[in-house]
Amino acid sequence: QDYTWEDHGYSLINRLYPDVGQLLDEKFQVVYNLTYNTIAMHCGVDTSMLRRAIWNYVHCVFGIRYDDYNYGEVNQLLERSLKIYIKTVACYPEKTTKRMYTQFWRHFKHSEKVHINLLLLEARMQAALLYALRAVTRYMT
Question: Name one GO molecular function term (predicted).
């Protein structure tokens, strides 16, 4: 059974630490929804599918999968070098190199690459919280 932030984690953390759930949720939403609607030289682009693919790929790396998400999107939208970069930053941040940073999305702005980093770090934090909160839920029941 899925243990999601929206359905389980948010309410539990708010019960344990009032208002913290709201603060964390706002933090996740700000980073997730951040967009200039551009990709490289293209303007007016809906980047929501890309942002969702990155978020769900990070969760997938940590063993969290959602039944209602088509993971084929991840393979369509994320090139191999980006997936390697995401996995390295999320799992082994000390092994991340400048070369890895420059290898993915060569024609993209640094602000877009920074947004990728923000997305993956917040998704990683949410994944860690989900594991911890699920353990607390199991302990409490």
Answer: L-leucine binding
- Asked, for residue 29, whether it belongs to a domain, the answer is yes
Task: Work out the end-to-end distance of the chain between its first and last CA atoms, rounded to an integer number of angstroms.
Answer: 16
pLDDT digits (tens, 9 = 90+) for 1-60: 578 999 999 999 999 999 999 999 999 999 999 999 988 889 999 999 999 999 999 999
Query: What is the span of the domain harbouring residue 39?
Result: 8-140
* pTM higher than the cut 0.90: yes
Identify whether 2 is part of a domain: no
In tens, the pLDDT along 64-81 reads 999 999 999 999 999 999
Concatenating the DSSP letter of every residue in 25-48 gives: HHHHHHHHH---SEETTEES---H
